Amino acid sequence: MSNENFVFLTAEVPGVFAFDRGKNVVKSSIFPRDAEEIQGKLDDLKKGKVVEELEAVLGDLDAENIITEFPLEIEGFNVEVKDETSARKHLRENLRELSKESGFVDNDEQFNEIIRDLQVLKTRDGIKSSVKKDKVMAQAVSALQDLRRVSNELSERLREWYGLYYPELKIEENESYAELVADLESRREFEDFEGSMGIDLDKVDIEAMRSFARQVSGIYKQIDELKGYLEEVMEDVTPNLTFLIGSEMAAQLVSLAGSLKKLARMPSSKIQLLGAEKALFRHLKGGGKPPKHGVIFNHPYIQQTPEGKRGKAARAIASKLMMAARTDHYTGKFKGKEYKEELEEELEEIRNG
Amino acid sequence: MDEIFENVFELKGDLYTVNLDPGEKVYGEELIKRDGVEYRRWDPNRSKLSAALRRGLDKFPLKEGTKVLYLGAAQGTTPSHVSDIIGRKGIVYLVEFSERAMRDLLELCERRGNMVPILADARKPEEYNWVEKVDLLYQDVAQPDQIKILRRNAKKFLREDGWIMIAVKARAIDVSKEPKEIYEEIKPGLEKDFDIFDFLELDPYEGDHGFILARKR
Ligand SMILES: C[S@@+](CC[C@H](N)C(=O)[O-])C[C@H]1O[C@@H](n2cnc3c(N)ncnc32)[C@H](O)[C@@H]1O
Fold it and tell me: Where are the alpha helices (DSSP H) in chain A?
């Protein structure tokens, strides 16, 4: 008796099915005919979550024992989990027929289309290069920012340190300053050394400063290298975003969004504020002005726009960035030129308007 | 317009199929209108199946409603004409492992409800074992082990009496041999499971290529 009292429970594109031992459908509940929803429900089932179609099938099921491939725990039933069951195979092999019989689709055309929709969805997500490397790029751009911050700090230290010895040395650029200090053995080698206000130091003191300067200068080289790398890879991962706003800001946006996929699913209003979270939080807590721009505020496009019009400019940029991110994620086609021309025209209008 | 096979047309020496996606070209082919119907020119220099027809393929098993498994779909040049011929009742499952090619193919699939993209290696049919039994298996992968790949897929997905069409790139199998010689080499193996209906060389449209039409026993 109890042996007879079991069903095979399985699910595929058309819905959730319970079969008896003779592979007859005991009960079924069909999914809505929408690829994203179906994908979501099948994923849930694989994680052992109970979806509403499953509940419907369980509702008045005349059985106590369930054999299924899903890791389910359901009150009132004994569940045995098996990877591959004959019922599952049966459903897969008769997908088209069972889809029609269950009323999931009315005809072959509809069946073809929903299979197509599902595969398009799956394939898009499976196109790895953009989906996978985007996370690597997010790290690379953070590393670049770390290096910049550290190089600034170290440069300041170097200037203060070497300034004791040779305060007259006036070189604007940190990178050149470090290189120069690393290269020269003593201040005597500078032409205008005569009459320096600095203190006299021993060779060991100077050597310690030079060694430090070499490290600082190495960091600048590292920065250039990383920039080149980022440029090269981002042109492949997000060709459109990169063409529009440059590899570094493109990588920053991907990094802030979490992934290219997430960025591609964001509305432009959110893209506009990426990186402004802290300011937004302050505003919500009752202090400070509402933030208008995220990282894109730093782009020359906005810096070149008169202050009163920057909000408008940011909106225009964000909406183009949204299109670029979607193109990068979904098709990978290059439409950057088009986007850039359109954007620059719009910005022109905003500035003159 | 003469209909030389079901849904395959000829006009002034050129082949055409009825555009399932009116107004849209796939690879720059010419579009023409006759009696309110839009046709796409099927270029034998771009598509080996068209070249095979030009070279006189004497049987053509594709028709309205045919289910096809297509290995090596690339950007979808030939598949788009297959999609035209089989119509919305038919379905073509497109296996392609190059992500670059797949990006273009995806756009095409989005526009055509009977083209189903599968990003997978045709050497691993387990990865797409959910595909139903098909009426025709088409293969154009230019790989040295292409016959092995074909047999594995045919075993899993091709129905009884189902058809196979294979484009064979001679140089991919053996650089020193002509298509005809390669054909003679692979023929005995194929004849174990298939009746061979036709073998054609595709030059001048496609150098170095042979085309086989056969049927599962
Ligand atoms: C000559 S092209 C196909 C052209 C296409 N049949 C047409 O006529 O429009 C060969 C394609 O097969 C793909 N390919 C080769 N080996 C493959 C495999 N093992 N699995 C999937 N695709 C493969 C290649 O990436 C390439 O896009």
Answer: 35-46, 52-59, 86-93, 95-101, 108-126, 128-165, 174-183, 203-237, 239-245, 247-257, 260-264, 268-273, 277-284, 300-303, 310-330, 336-352
